Amino acid sequence: xxxxxxxxxxxxxxxxxxxxxxxxxxxxxxxxxxxxxxxxxxxxxxxxxxxxxxxxxxxxxxxxxxxxxxxxxxxxxxxxxxxxxxxxxxxxxxxxxxxxxxxxxxxxxxxxxxxxxxxxxxxxxxxxxxxxxxxxxxxxxxxxxxxxxxxxxxxxxxxxxxxxxxxxxxxxxxxxxxxxxxxxxxxxxxxxxxxxxxxxxxxxxxxxxxxxxxxxxxxxxxxxxxxxxxxxxxxxxxxxxxxxxxxxxxxxxxxxxxxxxxxxxxxxxxxxxx
Length: 274
What we know:
single chain, four-stranded antiparallel beta sheet, 7 helices
């Protein structure tokens, strides 16, 4: 009799554990599907904007090239996503691409469109609030809050290889080697100090930049679900399109050529060796 009770008890435990695991698995699948659907909505929106705009100057062409690169990255990420967190990463890439679209529209003197949900680390990274031009390793490096022929390279703000990069327009994408290599070079702190020291929109110094200025999670945007990419956020008849065809004028071959910057092998061109 005691043996029978033990067998029944073990059977009951196995049953309830199995049932709990199936229920948990079902919930995880639902969360993944929801996260993927949310990411695909942003990716599709980005794709629509890319193919409806053509750059008219260096700044808008470069911003559109960067938007195209983020679109391709987001598409690859969502296809490989196996968890809600991975799907959320794909959405972050798409949102970053939408910031580049917005930058391109600003550079062309168009309505920038509605606000875009914040990127991870964007708020803590700060933003360029004044014109700066420095001499660094034998060349002029500039930063500006606005696009110009001298500052055609936009960055929406956020973290690159664990360090914050302020939003703004730059003469060259000085963060790109770290983005490609996943690590910053020894000269990055010197460049940052010379460029941003005392700037009101950048709430940290070179030492904080070097250490990563925290973990970047304090201002993580809610991108896991909840933004509506239909109604007020990106809908309402504003499709970001200027009626232009993406095909003529903007050459995006090669995934975002910045006009002479060769990032292969860590050579940033002009002697900026990372």
